[in-house]
Amino acid sequence: MKPVIALVGRTNVGKSTLFNRLTRSRDAIVADVAGLTRDRHYGQGRLGGHEYIVVDTGGFEPDAGSGIYREMARQTAQAIAEADTVIFVVDVRAGLSAQDHDIAVYLRRLGKPCVLAGNKAEGMQESALLAEFYELGLGEVHPVSAAHGQGVRSLLEAALEPLALAAPGEDDAQAGEADTIRMAVAGRPNVGKSTLINAWLGEERLVAFDLPGTTRDAIRVPFEQQGQKYELIDTAGLRKRGKVFEAVEKFSVVKTLRAIESAHVVVLLLDATQGVTDQDAHVAGYILESGRAVVVAVNKWDAVDEYQREQLHRSIENRLAFMKFATIHFISAARRQGIGALWPSIREAYQAATCKMPTPVLTRVLLESVQFQTPKRSGGSRPKPRYAHQGGMNPPVIVVHGNLLEHLTDAYKRFLEGRFRKQFKLVGTPLRLEFRTSKNPYVDRNGP
User: Fold this and answer.
1) Which of 15, 151, 418, 429 could, after both became Cys, cross-link 293 (CB 3.0–4.6 A)?
2) Residue 14, annotated as binding a ligand
């Protein structure tokens, strides 16, 4: 098995920067803001021919009393329990703090292998400032600069040295990625995205707190359900552009949009107590523009009465009319009601988004549709669709060829879309039709 390394330390010492360096990615948000990382964040790394898993954590306060910092401490404690070794990151330039002492006492009590990394030590390898960190009782201090990559390799070798390194096998994650469904849970802030994923997992894997904007990064969690592998992606809540003020929140929005684009299926989560808002329509519109398959889940269904439920049904029909192809579920993530029914719809949406449509079948459906209802005339001529073929997947793209197709009405295009959807059972995925008109070979000929 791949060894697991947890990055631990107080806020703003550079854990996320080191995480990005060890995974050779930009998966963790990095900014000069204390307390930015809040959830456990997993990533893959490689040293030579060996692979490992890195866990980024939030600022650790072992004795945090209450609130969001207590939840962050629980996440970090869980990451340490899962890890084979711990890299304790301290800030050389800020010096030793009382919180560093508290974390060191906690780690020594556990007795887990631990390596001390003195970050932000560019040009300070021989500095006397490193000496004070030896009083933490965790052995040698490894001076590194996560931002510039200095000393990171030797730090990683020291962390992996006591472990049996796992050589990459043919049955590794790369071989399984093709069978993994990437699924993002998206919605506006505080609708219960993290609570839903925690309910699926059966553990407090993500920080769920009654505070809008608790999740700031796109957190990826591997999961298996009935033999199908998934990668669950919890995203930061999306607001309207005009309401995004903090620089950190702008980074979070970018990560969320990228997570939606990289997913196969998106679960759009709505809040039953607030109805379908402009923000919900904004998020739904972006999912549609990205071409992702989608399942709509209305959370907190247990908190509304019959009248509110009836109003919500109407609101969905009116404000999300452009997503009629999506299956809708009414759930309560906190009570774990109805969440199991989402899985068949997610698999159905994925299969529809990635289905293969043979050209003969597409052409037959097209010609039968034309025979059933011919297009309206434009001037003295009538558009003539002749054949169709598949132009892409996720989302499915159907390319229709013929003459004068630029004159097809929007109503007729919707009619064709409905016929194709019915034939191939395309539920939960947008469908894009492209119309290509054949060039008239006589249009440029001179008269006799």
Assistant:
1) 429
2) yes
As beta bridge partners, residue 322 has none
Cα distance between residue 55 and residue 15, in whole Å = 10
Q: Provide CATH code, domain 173-353.
A: 3.40.50.300
The reply, when asked if residue 250 is annotated as ligand binding, is no
Lowest mean pLDDT among 36-50, 235-249, 269-283, 353-367: 235-249
Query: 190 labelled as ligand-binding?
Result: yes
123 is in an annotated binding site: no
Answer yes or no: is 127 a known binding residue: no
202 is in an annotated binding site: no
CATH 3.20.20.140 fits 359-437, yes or no: no
- 295: phi then psi, degrees, rounded to nearest 5: -125, 130
Domain with CATH 3.40.50.300 in the chain: 4-160, 173-353
Does the annotation place 57 within a ligand binding site?
yes
Tell me if 149 is assigned to a ligand binding site: no
356: phi then psi, degrees, rounded to nearest 5:
-105, 130
pLDDT in tens, 149-195: 899 999 999 988 877 554 444 444 443 455 789 888 888 777 888 78
What is the architecture, at CATH level 2, of domain 4-160?
A: 3-Layer(aba) Sandwich (3.40)
φ/ψ (deg, to 5) at 199: -65, -40
Does 192 count as an annotated binding residue? yes
